[in-house]
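Can you make up a polypeptide sequence alongside its tokenized fold?
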Amino acid sequence: MTPATPPPSDSPTLLIVDDDHAIRCLLTESLGRHGYRVETAASAQEMDMALARHPIALILLDIMMPGEDGISVCRRIALRGGPPIVFLSALGDEPDRILGLEIGASHYLTKPCSAREVLATVRAALRARDGAAEEPRHYRFLDWRVDFAARELIDGSGMLVDLTDGEFSVLRAFVRRPRRVLTRDALLEDARGPDSDAYDRAIDVQVSRLRRKLRARDDEIIRTIRNEGYYFVPSVTRT
């Protein structure tokens, strides 16, 4: 058998965190064949050591692991602005998937899934990361300022407004495309990625919470367009 060609030294390094040895081996082989460098970890503790050793472009993360579980891991990685996370879990119910996305994962795959689906999701998550790095960091509308890099919303007095990851993702979608009607599907695609079509009800909840935190009356900032979607009323400037 001809030995596999090692990935180029500048290839993105992925970290697979899963206590199942067979899954780690399968994904390492599959992703390695497509040009990615791959590190593996069987626990959160091993993950932390891998993150300290190498720059990691993306984490493929299981939820049910001994010791610290994947939900806790994702929360702390997201809080410190770590690499994007793709959940790969046997927990496939809608509440589990929504929770995973709410706490900061970019995508959520349910086991069992094909190697092709994992590869497509990794590519989508890395494209989204690279696109976010190229766009302007600060935006303004009315008296509000949005910092994409820090994931912060700041009011006119300079106070930081606490937003969940889901609320910030929806706000970012509006700020990117103001003064046009965005359907729920468009908001889902922009805020969650292509694997999010099951969560249209969650968008309505996020919009409602976002209105309250923007201290907006009725449709003052986010207007509901009957049978179509939502419309972000203020003009937006890049700073």
Observations:
- The helical segments are 21-33, 44-53, 70-79, 94-102, 115-134, 165-176, 184-192, 200-213.
- The CA atoms of residues 82 and 173 lie 21 Å apart.
- Confidence is low (pLDDT under 50) at residues 193-199.
